[in-house]
Amino acid sequence: MHLLFNCPTYLASTFAIDTAQSRVGLCRDYFYWGIALCRSLIIPARMVVGYLYQLEPMDLHTWFEVFIRHRWYAFDASQTEPRGNRVAIAYGRDASGVALTTQFGSLNLIEMKVWVEAFPHLGDPNHYN
């Protein structure tokens, strides 16, 4: 199924079925749809919140992971090209498990600067010579 990445469509109450019907959403909607599909096939899946290297503009990002053959694999359908160097901040069954703010008051963010830098590939034996 083809989904269009579109920021103005954000609604806090969007469900996976809404994304499937409208075929439009944000990274959050992509992970909900992916998790719903995996779980319908009895494949364990979880949400991840974090930062993604070279994401423009830099902001929090969500993707999902599935557990296959004793290992978690990351899936990010909102990205059109492969990207590594993810910085995971939280893991959860859904968005409620990884909320970065709480119901105990509003958050007035004045300024935030975040950057992610890639380390050289650790698997390259010639890197340290």
Report on the structure:
The chain is about 15% helix and about 25% strand. It has about 130 residues and is an alpha+beta fold. The chain has a single domain, classed as C8orf32 fold, CATH 3.10.620.30. The strands form two sheets. The protein has a four-stranded antiparallel β-sheet with strand order 5-4-3-6, covered by helices on one side. A hairpin with a 2-residue loop joins strand 4 (about 60-70) and strand 5 (about 70-75). The longest helix is centred in the N-terminal third of the chain and has 14 residues, at about 25-40.
CATH topology description: C8orf32 fold
Average pLDDT rating: 72
- Fraction of residues in helices? 10-25%
Count of alpha/pi helices: 2
Helices and strands, in order, run as EHEHEEEE
Salient structural properties:
129 residues; alpha+beta; C8orf32 fold; 4-stranded antiparallel sheet; two-stranded parallel ribbon; 2 helices; 6 strands; 16% helix; 25% strand; globular; disordered N terminus; disordered C terminus
Short description:
The protein has helices at 16-22, 27-40, and strands at 4-5, 24-25, 45-52, 61-68, 71-75, 86-92. By secondary structure, the chain is an alpha+beta fold.
Give me the secondary-structure topology.
Layout: E1 4-5, H1 16-22, E2 24-25, H2 27-40, E3 45-52, E4 61-68, E5 71-75, E6 86-92
Helix pairs in contact: 1-2
